[in-house]
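Q: Joint fold for the lines below.
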Amino acid sequence: GAVVSQHPSRVICKSGTSVKIECRSLDFQATTMFWYRQFPKQSLMLMATSNEGSKATYEQGVEKDKFLINHASLTLSTLTVTSAHPEDSSFYICSAESSGIYGANVLTFGAGSRLTVL
Amino acid sequence: QQQVKQSPQSLIVQKGGISIINCAYENTAFDYFPWYQQFPGKGPALLIAIRPDVSEKKEGRFTISFNKSAKQFSLHIMDSQPGDSATYFCAASSQGAQKLVFGQGTRLTINP
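A: Joint structure:
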């Protein structure tokens, strides 16, 4: 089945630094990838839609200058948290759309990246 | 109108019992309803999904029941096992697998 790989799985950084998270579709091409944020014991909130070769589409309330998204190829999207602060600490999860077993598309998630900003 | 309301927030079931998680939605444009299973520290994994043209879908021990008129759908886990202990999320979308709106999640614990 489709596999989405995310790296790093955990990252700890100092306040004010920038952190890049990579999301790769390993065995399929993904023109569209999605970035979610999940706080402890809470649901997943869609942050942005990453489109290969064009600008990302951000959900309302998500700062595009804080969360930079680049989708440079059909298998790679990156999320950069710029000038990170403790309130940016969260679990970030990417996902990509792939063909399901019955032909309809399904959303496959990566394993997530836990960011801790000190 | 974009919300998906999920209940209960947490659920404890004895091994071998039936686990039932419910979701309700408002947006009648939603036409794709997946359930995801998430273990601690991991990303969600698709468990089963349904479209509104059927009222029930079964895959192994997992069954989705869908009530279009009531705008509700539920997940039933038969013969629940300790390995089923996880957080379950329902979701809905009007754009296929894209732009999923997730429920609040249910933390399921199966006692041995």
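Q: Anything notable?
A: Chain A is about 0% helix and 55% strand. Chain A touches chain B at residues 4, 6, 32, 34, 41-46, 49, 93, 95, 97, 100, 104-112, 114 (CB under 8 Å).
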